[in-house]
Every structure is written in C-alpha cells, then in structure tokens.
User: What shape does this take?
Amino acid sequence: MSLRLCVVSCGHFARIFAQELQAIAGEVDLSFASRDVQRAAEYAAAFNGEASFGSYEAAATDSSVDAMYLCTPHFLHLKHVAMAAAAGKHILLEKPMARTIEEAQEIIRTAERAKVNLMVAENYRFMAVVRRAKELIDGGTLGDLRLIQLQEEADFRPSQWRTIRKLNGGGVLIDGGIHKIDILLYLAGRPKDVYATALPQVLAESEGEDGSIVITHSKTGVVGLVNHSWAKVHGREPKWVSVSGSKARISFDLAGTQLIFDDGLEERTLEAPGDRQGLISMVQEFRDSIRQSREPEISGSVGMEDLEITLKAYESMESGQTVLLDP
Assistant: This one.
C-alpha cells in the first residue's frame, strides 16, 4: 500500500523533491498544497499528483492524505505541525525542525500527544556517499578517526523571510549548514564542545551571518571542521567532505557517486551506488517507520540534537568562546 504524502508549500525545493520521487511513483503518491490554488494544481499536473489543495488546512483534513511534508518557513513549523497532528497526519518536517529548543520540544510533544510519526527531513544523511563513508568508518577501514572536514561555498542570495534573523532562526548555518552538522554527528558522534565564528559579511540585506566556520571536538578527540558560506563570488563549487583516520583518508563530493580512498600506498576510487540526493531513501524510511509503528532514523530527538549543536555554535559566535556541551 502506497504512502499518500502531501507536499505542503510549493516552492523551489518542493519541485526538486517531487521530481526525485517520480522514481518511486506507486510507492509514494504525492499531492500538493499551496496558498495559491493554481500553483498547487500546476505542481500536481507536473509531478503526477493525486490531488491539489488551495490551503494547507484543506489538505490536513482530507481523508486521502496520510502524511504531510512540511516545506514551510522555519517560523511556521510549530504552527503547521500542530495543524497536521490535530488532523492525525504523520509529519515529515523540513530542517531545521525549529528555531529554538523550546519550539523543538513543543513540536515533539505535539506529535507524541497525537500519536503520529514525526521525522525531520534531513536527506544528506541518506546520500549514498555518506552511507558508504559511515560503513568504512564503522568497519575500521580508516583506523581511528582524527579529522572530518565539510565544506560548501555557494553563490546564493537569500530573500524574504530568510533575510530576517528572527524568522529564519539565524543565518546560513541554521538554514543550510545544519546539514553538515548532522553529517558530522552521524559520522563522529556527539561532540563535547563547539567553537564558531562568522565570516566577514558580504550580503548586506541579510540580518544573519552569510558564512560560518564551526570547529568541534569529540570525546575521543576527533576534530570536526565545517565551512559553510552563501557569499562565494563566482559560481558554485562542489560540496565536499574529507575524513582522515590513522590508517587512511577518504574524500567525496556530496550527492556524488564515488569516494577517493588514500592509505598512503595507493589512491583508488570506491563506488557508492544508490540514492545520490538521499531524498528517496529518506522518504522510504519515513514510510517504513509508519508501517512498522516505530521511530524513524531522523526522529524529533535527532533533529533537536542537530539544532542544539547549531544553536551552541551561535552562542560561541556571540561570546567568542568555546562552548561546552552536556554529555
């Protein structure tokens, strides 16, 4: 039986998401909801949607919808989770799940009270190259972990609510860099401390930072380094990850299909077949968690930990000091 999933808010990423999910049509039946009924209808026509809705509330109360994928602005997440949960719909919630820990806690409580599944839509963890890296790390192929570096420098210009710190929850780190925080936690575990600094501002129209550096240390001494910026001057570079261990090193582009393995004796290419974007695997995990009445891999508590580390990074930016984390 297919999962009947309504995409809520028909923006740019909703289009990317819907296009990817065409590969599993029949497993997941999409519908679309927008404040603009014509826009919802256009998305439904373009991506074989089962239905379209001219309001989010209409989708929430429709019996043909099993679950809702909330792609709405960060400051509306709590409101829309409450709407979906009240209607008994399972919830796939875009990252960051909230702007504050208090909001995140209320989102989790709301889903629990309604007895619906809540999953944070963190697709990077499901990318084939990230999964392959995790296998190599856990299998001891790299030896003891020493350093994980994650970098993205993009030419992106945020607009509307994304430029307002209060509505967005911050700047580039909470909006896009939180993907890298999740990968770091997935590969190296919870850090014991975090230090962060903002880069000199380029995007004057944005209240939040447009570039950030985050450094973490794990309990075993593994260093994490995240460089995430939306103010690159010329075009876009690949989003890359490098993982160094005592025996070998791997590097790869996110959403790629290969990893470069180097143990000092030889350099070779390792294939990572599967879901490049991580979106299909993410939705399949959401669907399976509903069918099996269990927590999904990216549960509300996992999404809240990503948010916690991100907010501690902001605390460090403000104080200029390293911030210690609870165990």
